[in-house]
Write a structure and sequence with these properties.
21 strands; mainly beta; 6-stranded antiparallel beta sheet; signal; Por secretion system C-terminal sorting domain-containing protein; Jelly Rolls; 2 domains; Immunoglobulin-like; single chain; about 270 residues; about 5% helix
Length: about 270
C-alpha cells in the first residue's frame, strides 16, 4: 500500500514537471549576431518585424540578468527603423511567459523619453493576448542598469503568465526606438510538441480524424495505452483508454477551441469547431 502511494506521488511529480519547467535565458552563452537561441533544450527564433534584432555581445556590462549587470541580450543596435518590433518564436514546443527585462530608450540610449510597449502572445498565428504598457519605465540606469521588469503575472492588472503560446511579440511605440531584451523567464511545456501540419508526431504511428471535428472523432493507434485531453493552459479535461486500431472519442461537451491530445508516443492538436 505504501509503495503504491509512493509510486502515485512520483507519477504526479513527473507529470507536473513535464508541464511546468521554468527556465531563465540570460543569453550569456549565445553567439553575438545570432538570430536564434537555445534554452532548456528548446530553440527559439528571433524574428525581426521592423528593424533588425539579434543577440548583442559587443558591449559587456550593458545587460541585466535580473539581479546584476551581464554581457549579452537581444537588441536592435542602432537600427533606425520604426516602430521597432520583433518576436521570439518556437515551432517545437509551446511555452508560457513569466517575466523579462527591457531597456527602452531613444536611439542614443537616453532613457528619459516617453513611449509605449505592446506585448502580444500568439499560438499558431492566432492572438491569445495583447497589452500595451504606457507607464512605469526606468528613466535612469539606477539599480537595474536601466532595465524595466515586465511582469506577465501582473501586466496592466491582469495575469498573462498562464496562457500557452508559441510566439511572443514585442513592439515599441512613441519615442522608444531602441530595445534591449534580457533575463527571459518562461515555462516549458515539454510534452506538447506539434508537427508543422498540426497532426501527431510519434515514434509509433497515430492519426486523428476528422480534425477539425464537431465533436466525435477517431484515434487510430498501433499500441494500447491511455490518452489525455488538455486545454491550452494545461488543465486535464478527459482521459481515454486506447486499444490498438480505431478508437472512437467525443469532445462534444467541450467549448469550441484547440485542445491537446497526449499519448505515450506523442502529442497532437484537436480542433473543435
Amino acid at each position: 500500500m505504501k509503495r503504491s502511494i509512493f509510486l502515485t506521488i512520483c507519477s504526479l511529480l513527473i507529470s507536473l514537471l513535464s508541464f511546468g519547467q521554468t527556465s531563465t535565458e540570460q543569453f550569456e552563452t549565445e553567439s553575438h549576431g545570432s538570430s536564434s537561441f537555445t534554452d532548456n533544450g528548446v530553440i527559439f527564433n528571433i524574428i525581426s518585424h521592423v528593424g533588425t534584432f539579434d543577440i548583442q555581445g559587443n558591449y559587456p556590462g550593458t545587460g541585466w540578468s535580473g539581479t546584476a549587470n551581464d554581457n549579452r541580450y537581444i537588441d536592435n543596435s542602432n537600427d533606425a527603423a520604426s516602430p521597432p518590433s520583433f518576436s521570439i518564436k518556437t515551432t517545437s514546443n509551446l511555452f508560457k511567459v513569466n517575466r523579462f527585462w527591457m531597456y527602452l530608450s531613444a536611439l542614443n540610449l537616453d532613457l528619459n523619453v516617453s513611449g509605449t510597449l505592446t506585448i502580444t502572445g500568439k499560438l499558431s498565428g492566432v492572438t491569445k493576448f495583447t497589452q500595451t504598457k504606457t507607464t512605469g519605465f526606468a528613466t535612469s540606469l539606477g539599480s537595474t542598469n536601466g532595465y524595466t521588469l515586465i511582469d506577465m503575472t501582473n501586466l496592466n492588472g491582469q495575469n498573462y503568465s498562464n496562457i500557452v503560446i508559441d510566439e511572443l511579440r514585442i513592439t515599441l511605440g512613441g519615442n522608444f526606438r531602441y530595445a534591449g531584451f534580457d533575463a527571459f523567464t518562461w515555462v516549458k511545456d515539454s510534452n506538447i510538441v506539434l508537427a508543422t501540419n498540426e497532426t501527431a508526431i510519434s515514434k509509433k504511428e497515430i492519426s486523428i480524424y476528422p480534425n477539425p471535428t464537431s465533436g466525435p472523432f477517431t484515434i487510430n493507434t498501433e499500441e494500447n495505452g491511455q490518452a489525455e485531453i488538455y486545454s491550452q493552459d494545461g488543465k486535464l479535461l478527459k482521459r481515454l483508454e486506447l486499444k490498438k486500431g480505431n478508437n472512437h472519442a467525443d469532445v462534444s461537451e467541450l467549448p469550441n477551441g484547440v485542445y491537446i491530445l497526449k499519448t505515450p508516443s506523442g502529442s497532437s492538436k484537436i480542433i473543435k469547431k
